[in-house]
Specification:
The protein is mainly β. 5% of the residues lie in helices and 33% in strands. Pfam families: dUTPase (PF00692).
């Protein structure tokens, strides 16, 4: 799949780090480092602009290494870039740790995954088909 992209950063395009990786690592594009205090969030620019094909979304997901080592995640995880969005890709990072974290220019801050999606039309109904689970909600599966 080809996706048109404009790179206004000083960093390489998002890239797969291994042969079978699903996500492409994306870099922070910062004029100066950004310090995230515990529970603080910040919108981190990437300098990237892209045109996602209709019928697809670009998911923005946390990097497992940042999450495990530093407690850094993405507030709206996964974030979605829609096919009609043409603005700069920015990543909404949050520091879930108890210590400050400094985001450096060029640091790999998230991963991008392209996913196909369907567009639905609601079909109003008066009742729904029965299932074994029924209306059982949170924590209801596996309970006897």
């Amino acid at each position: 799949m080809q996706i048109p992209i404009i790179n206004r950063s000083r960093h390489p395009l998002p890239a797969y780090q291994t042969e079978h990786a699903a996500g492409l690592d994306v870099h922070a594009n910062l004029a100066e480092p950004v310090t995230l205090k515990p529970l603080q969030r910040a919108l981190i620019p990437t300098g990237l602009f892209m045109a996602i094909p209709v019928g697809y979304e670009m998911q923005v997901r946390p990097r497992s290494g940042l999450a495990y080592k530093h407690g850094i995640s993405i507030v709206n995880s996964p974030g979605t870039i829609d096919a009609d969005y043409r603005g700069e890709l920015k990543v909404l990072l949050v520091n879930l740790s108890e210590t400050d974290f400094v985001v450096q220019d060029g640091e790999r801050i998230a991963q991008l995954v392209v996913a196909r999606h369907e567009t639905i039309a609601w079909e109003p109904a008066e009742e729904l088909s029965e299932t074994a689970r029924g209306a059982g909600g949170y924590g209801s599966t596996g309970m006897q």
